Amino acid sequence: MRQEYGHTRIGRFTIYLALISVVAGCAAYEAGNVLGAVAGIKLIWTGISLPLVVLFIGLIAATVLWKGTISQIASILGVIVAFMGVCFLITVFMLPHDFSALLSGAIQPAIPPGSELLVLGLIGTTVVPYSIFLGSGLKHDQSPSEMKVGLMVAIGLGGLISIAILLTGTAVIGEFSFETLAVTLDNQLGSGARVLLAIGLFGAGLSSALTAALAASITSKSLLSVNNLDPDWAENGKWFRAVWIGVLATGLLFGMIQLQPVPIIILAQALNGVILPIIAVILFLLMNSERVLPKEFRNGNFYNLMTSVVVYLTILIGVTNVFRAGARAFDVDNINETILVVISLGIFLIVIIPSMVRLYKTNRSRSSKEE
Questions:
Q1: Going residue by residue through the chain (371 aa), what tens digit of pLDDT does each one get?
Q2: Any idea what DSSP says for residue 38?
Q3: Is the dihedral of CA 30, 157, 305, 284 positive or negative?
Q4: How many helices, marked H, and strands, marked E, lie in the chain?
Q5: Which of 182, 193, 314, 322 has CB 3.0 to 4.6 Å from 273, enough for a Cys bridge?
Q6: How far from chain centre, in Å, is Cα 35?
Q7: How far apart are CA 232 and CA 158, in angstroms?
Q8: Cβ atoms of 176 and 205 closer than 8 Å
């Protein structure tokens, strides 16, 4: 983004918009991450002091972020997420499920009436913009082909864990809470199920707390540092640490008072709703740029077509998040989903179709010259 668009006014505006959106989003969601880890601990030690638990979680996260390198933190996150995933997978396989119905739903999915925004919200909280900056900011020693394999494995396992978490939640009938879920699992599977759920929740909250803080610092570094040799933006540099300390401190503050900063979360949803499709479009263009990638790694027509579908979905998610944030801010109950689809389609046609036609002509002209 800096290399290709940083010299233009619109490019610089986009860079700062991405920075503000990602950092604000990470800070706003950090309270939920911390409280999620707290919920896991309190399922086992019900009488423990909340401030003590929040400080304990903050101490663990701060120690890992202060002492560890990015590579070490990535490894720690991998272990935590893997352990969390195993806990949820064990739990979900112990629960009684109609697996034929699950298979049927996987092949022919259906969205229950009135849950469209919920489904988009689940996607929007999974496909968050900072994941792109976080993934590119981690140190890699693999070749591009090895990276592709690693991404397929990571995304596949992430999807499997997400499915396990959702299926675990279906054990509750009626109003959902972690305590209700724990009691339900206790009744169905025995006391060990509560422990598995508690570990899973703690792992999910702690890993998310680490990820959000680290992603904010990596994003700030990638968008603000002049080059990778700037000592202030090194892993132990003052600005790199200042960003993650600010994000973590925000989560701990709101965690202490058990308050979700709803106005900030609404603003963060709106900002991330705007930036997600912008980042998707920029990636689409960069993956076809001769100045950025050699020929063997640029997308062809088939991949551009597939990527354009993903870009449309991100635009739909982004538009939905913006409207949802506005609806919450102004206490509007219902949002017309048809209007959201039409607006998203209009933006997609205006932004992507001209780019696809231009890229198709360029690729065709290049192929003709080579022949």
A1: 888 888 889 889 988 988 988 888 888 888 888 888 998 998 888 888 888 899 999 999 999 999 988 888 888 888 888 888 888 888 888 888 888 888 888 888 787 777 766 676 677 667 777 888 888 777 667 787 888 888 888 888 888 888 888 888 888 887 778 888 888 888 888 878 888 889 988 988 899 899 999 999 999 998 888 776 788 888 889 999 999 999 999 989 988 887 766 666 667 767 777 788 888 888 888 888 888 888 888 888 888 888 888 899 888 888 887 787 777 777 777 777 788 889 999 988 888 777 777 766 766 676 666 66
A2: H
A3: positive
A4: 14, 0
A5: 322
A6: 18
A7: 33
A8: no
Residue ranges of the domains in the chain? 1-108+129-260, 269-365
Q: Report the distance separating Cα 237 and Cα 250, nearest Å.
A: 20
Q: Which residues have C-beta within 8 Å of that of residue 138, sequence separation ≥ 6?
A: 70, 71, 74, 218
Side-chain half-sphere exposure of 316, counting CA atoms within 13 A: 18
CB 87 within 8 A of CB 197: yes
Residues in the chain: 371
Residue 53, number of CB atoms within 10 A of its CB: 21
* Rounded Cα gap, residues 86 and 4, in angstroms: 42
For 207, half-sphere exposure in the C-beta direction (CA atoms, 13 angstrom radius) is 18
DSSP state at residue 112: P
What is the residue type of 280? A
Q: Compute the distance between CA of residue 207 and CA of residue 281 in angstroms, rounded to an integer.
A: 29
Q: What is the C-alpha separation between 202 and 34, in angstroms, rounded?
A: 9
Assigned token pair, 343: 């607006």
Structural tokens at position 306? 């597939």
Residue linked to tokens 């900056």: 133
CA 66-72-73 angle, 5° bins = 60
Amino acid at 17: L
Which residue has tokens 């992507």?
352
